[in-house]
């Protein structure tokens, strides 16, 4: 986006264009919005890009310089479109009134990027807008995420692992990311980021100096040192780089940012990108937020509540006592349904407190924000008053509202009009009776209208010109207009101001004095009102921490109310928690499917897993019978229980799991040159390398992406590997019904019931102990409308294949404690080969070669 004209060839340029080029030199990667009067103008390549993206006219000025512009008062909508298109925008403002003798001083006051926006029209009102930073140093990694629009700040550290990086980026979904570390690793991360549509940002490497970044941290947080923050060298680079970038783009002190909060994996269940996507936690596969788990559970009334619920879904708890406390609150709200409705009604009057205080701190507020803040504090006081009538132990997490916030609310209410104009220039902002001088000046302005009418009537009578008018415009100010036919009657005390085709415009000493008084009054009004507003802003910023604490508490309460409402409306039950490693769900239901996708009642199913005889459940059954829904249901209900929610079931007794892994479906990753099968194997490898005996694994149709016997062999081997080495609770859905012949302790078989009759096959969607002996795939083909000759031929081919099946040989292979049942002679080599594969650093080509080698071992 650099300019197409160099600084060395600018002799013919105007001083203003030379000024533009000087400023543009420092903002080569941004589209520069250059303020010229009432417009932001763009030039050179910036103009070409903007005209195309914004669909505005591209013109030119001297030397055929391309240019285009947008009105300054409508700039936000244009900026939003540029940001959405992936561009950065630098706002260059006039820093002084125009002068005839010198060029106006201009400076860039803000750089707007995808991860640094705060304007309400540029970001989703109830979602976080994170800027991320990944720093890799000495085999450790620290990832940070900051939302400048809310002040939220999180960091997480670990030994270097690609899986850790991709998982955390998926959970926070930043809009923009800074990267620092070895180039080889950064290339991998860049690929991952680009695939998710995240913008890449950068700062010069010399800024990654721990001493410099420590000073940045101390300056922004007002600290003498950072010992109290507990930051490591790597996390100093992460936190400091984020603060440097925000300071550089916002040109502000960022006093509203919260201290970085460390997110530890020891406190929360880990959900990777595949699990978040496959379980459709925040949005469905088609991108719908409504048809997701969030869509089912979200009854929040505030933006803080919605963001809190989203974070809870992505960070389920591992602490049983914390979960029981959440269950207690939800139980109480359900038992007191009228209280729940009252709280939600009052919560609906609370605006986005976090973003309000951020806009005030960054001086990007609107006058209506004062009223929104006042109304929100007042509504929050009503909520707290309501909670005081109920058990302290349940709602003690809410704390109290400080007296300073109550005083602030009262000050705003008593000072600012209920519906303030956008700016002080557009009308009265401060209430009458608050400031005597302000009232006097407003009276002068009000009386001025009547004075003008009186003056007009006096002049009409004095000059005997009935058409005489006294008017005002921004160009020449106040004037007396007389038509051409009456100008002979104009006296000597009239001074000509402007000549029109059909009229002359004049002024008088009396009118000039009046104009001076009125304009001075207007300027003084704006000055006084701005000073009074600034005083209130200072009070708001002084109270930023109490406001942010209130916002946090309201968000938590709103989330509990949302979960309670979902539980009440959808007939959910309170889970019991155990330490025995048992997952026991009676009559479980899939919350999303039962609410959005079926007309008839959902068929409930039981789930039972433990650490001895029921570790791995192999689920067989026809396609379309409900296997995938069943295993997803198990994972979703476990996740719901670990955010503190009730779940759709008749009863549930659950242990706590450290991770949920999913391997569901597959598709080619064309961008990375990965086939369906390679994608499937990569995801399976992540599970086998990271799952523990405290994890929950759901796997659906392993081995689909290769030949039948290759796929079946891999699926069989994966099941036995989990059983022998990982021992994680696993639900393994497969169309390879031959896998039910695996005979090993801890592996059990379930099937989906099918009712056969002369009229065909009916899927009952009921999961029961046992094994399917056929897949009914041809029946499903008939349901899909495959021509009859094709299905008849398929039946004949199936009969021949079944007669020549080699699967029985697999089941008859002798068992040995130290060997996998399928490959007695090659177990050690196969197991060692799997262990030796460095999945984190495997290229697609190397992966294909490894798979070919494993196939040769099996054969």
Plain-language structure description:
The chain has 859 residues and is of the alpha/beta class. It has five domains: 7-112, 3-Layer(aba) Sandwich (MutS, DNA mismatch repair protein, domain I); 131-264, 2-Layer Sandwich (Nucleotidyltransferase, domain 5); 298-425 and 543-570, MutS, DNA mismatch repair protein, Chain A, domain 3 (Orthogonal Bundle), CATH 1.10.1420; 436-537, MutS, DNA mismatch repair protein, Chain A, domain 3, CATH 1.10.1420.10; 576-780, Rossmann fold (3-Layer(aba) Sandwich), CATH 3.40.50. Helices cover 44% and strands 17% of the residues. The chain has 28 helices and 27 strands. A seven-stranded mixed sheet has the order 13-23-24-25-21-26-27, with helices on both faces. The chain has a six-stranded mixed sheet with strand order 3-4-2-1-5-6, with helices on both faces. A six-stranded mixed sheet has the order 11-10-7-8-9-12, with helices on both faces. Helix 10 crosses helix 19 (544-570), helix 12 packs antiparallel against helix 14 (367-387) and helix 14 (367-387) packs across helix 16 (403-415). It is elongated and about 120 Å long. Residues 3-8, 668-673 and 809-825 have low confidence and may be disordered.
């Amino acid at each position: 986006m650099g300019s197409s004209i160099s600084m060395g060839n600018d002799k013919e340029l105007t001083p203003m264009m030379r000024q533009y080029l000087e400023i543009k030199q420092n903002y080569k990667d941004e589209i520069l919005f250059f303020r010229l009067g009432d417009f932001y103008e763009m030039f050179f390549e910036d103009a070409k890009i903007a005209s195309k993206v914004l669909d505005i006219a591209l013109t030119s000025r001297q030397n055929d310089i391309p240019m285009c512009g947008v009105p300054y008062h409508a700039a936000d909508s244009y900026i939003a479109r540029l940001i959405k298109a992936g561009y950065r925008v630098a706002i260059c403002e006039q820093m002084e009134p125009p002068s005839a003798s010198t060029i106006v001083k201009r400076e860039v006051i803000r750089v707007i990027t995808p991860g640094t926006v705060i304007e309400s029209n540029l970001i989703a009102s109830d979602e976080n807008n994170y800027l991320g930073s990944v720093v890799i140093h000495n085999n450790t990694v620290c990832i940070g995420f900051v939302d400048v629009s809310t002040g939220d700040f999180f960091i997480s550290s670990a030994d270097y692992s690609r899986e850790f990086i991709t998982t955390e980026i998926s959970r926070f979904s930043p809009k923009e990311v800074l990267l620092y570390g070895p180039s080889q690793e950064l290339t991998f991360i860049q690929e991952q980021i680009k695939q998710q549509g995240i913008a890449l940002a950068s700062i010069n490497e010399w800024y990654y100096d721990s001493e410099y970044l420590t000073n940045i941290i101390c300056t922004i947080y007002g600290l003498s040192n950072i010992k109290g923050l507990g930051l490591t060298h790597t996390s100093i680079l992460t936190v400091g780089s984020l603060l440097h970038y925000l300071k550089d783009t916002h040109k502000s002190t960022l006093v509203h940012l919260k201290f970085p909060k460390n997110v530890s994996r020891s406190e929360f269940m880990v959900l990777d990108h595949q699990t978040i996507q496959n379980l459709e936690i925040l949005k469905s596969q088609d991108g719908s937020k409504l048809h997701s788990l969030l869509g089912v559970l979200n009854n929040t009334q505030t933006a803080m509540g919605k963001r809190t619920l989203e974070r809870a879904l992505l960070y389920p708890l591992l602490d049983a006592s914390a979960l029981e406390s959440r269950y207690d609150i939800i139980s109480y709200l359900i038992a007191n349904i009228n209280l729940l409705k009252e709280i939600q009604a009052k919560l609906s009057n609370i605006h986005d407190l976090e973003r309000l205080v951020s806009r005030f701190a960054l001086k990007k507020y609107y006058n209506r924000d004062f009223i929104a803040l006042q109304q929100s504090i007042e509504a929050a006081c009503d909520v707290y008053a309501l909670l005081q009538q109920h058990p302290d132990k349940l709602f003690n997490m809410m704390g109290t509202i400080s007296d300073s916030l109550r005083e602030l609310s009262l000050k705003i209410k008593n000072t600012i009009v209920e519906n303030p104009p956008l700016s002080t220039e557009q009308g009265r902002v401060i209430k009458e009776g608050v400031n005597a001088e302000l009232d006097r000046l407003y009276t002068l302005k009000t009386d001025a209208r009547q004075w003008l009418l009186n003056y007009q009537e006096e002049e009409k009578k004095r000059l005997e010109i009935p058409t005489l008018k006294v008017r005002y415009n921004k160009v020449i100010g106040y004037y007396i207009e007389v038509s051409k036919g009456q100008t002979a009657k104009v006296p000597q005390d009239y001074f000509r101001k402007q000549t029109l085709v059909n009229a002359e415009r004049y002024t008088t000493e009396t009118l000039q004095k009046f104009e001076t008084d009125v304009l001075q009054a207007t300027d003084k009004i704006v000055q006084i009102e701005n000073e009074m507003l600034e005083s209130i802003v200072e009070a708001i910023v002084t109270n930023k921490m109490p406001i942010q604490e209130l916002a946090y508490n309201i968000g938590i309460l709103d989330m509990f109310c949302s979960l309670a409402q979902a539980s009440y409306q959808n007939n959910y039950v309170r889970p019991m928690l155990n330490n025995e490693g048992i997952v026991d769900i009676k009559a479980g239901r899939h919350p999303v499917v039962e609410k959005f996708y079926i007309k008839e009642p959902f068929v409930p199913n039981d789930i039972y897993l433990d650490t001895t005889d029921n570790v791995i459940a192999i689920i067989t059954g026809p396609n379309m019978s409900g296997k995938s829904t069943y295993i997803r249901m198990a994972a979703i209900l476990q996740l719901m229980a670990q955010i503190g929610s009730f779940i759709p079931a008749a009863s549930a007794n659950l242990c706590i799991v450290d991770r949920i892994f999913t391997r569901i479906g597959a598709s080619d990753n064309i961008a990375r040159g990965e086939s369906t099968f390679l994608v499937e194997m990569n995801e399976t490898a992540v599970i086998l390398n990271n799952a523990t005996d405290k994890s929950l694994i759901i796997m659906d149709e392993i081995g689909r992406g290769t030949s039948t016997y290759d796929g079946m062999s891999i699926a069989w081997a994966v099941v036995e590997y989990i059983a022998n080495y990982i021992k994680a609770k696993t639900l393994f859905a497969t169309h390879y019904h031959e896998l039910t012949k695996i005979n090993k302790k801890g592996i059990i078989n379930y099937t989906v019931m099918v009712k056969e009759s002369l009229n065909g096959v009916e899927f009952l969607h009921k999961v029961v102990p046992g094994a399917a002996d056929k897949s009914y795939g041809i029946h499903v083909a008939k349901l899909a409308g495959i021509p009859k000759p094709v299905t008849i031929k398929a039946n004949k081919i199936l009969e021949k294949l079944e007669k020549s099946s080699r699967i029985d040989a697999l089941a008859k292979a002798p068992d040995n404690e130290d060997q996998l049942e399928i490959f007695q002679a090659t177990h050690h080599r196969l197991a060692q080969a799997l262990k030796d594969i460095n999945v984190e650093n495997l290229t697609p080509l190397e992966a294909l070669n490894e798979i070919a080698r494993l196939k040769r071992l099996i054969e």
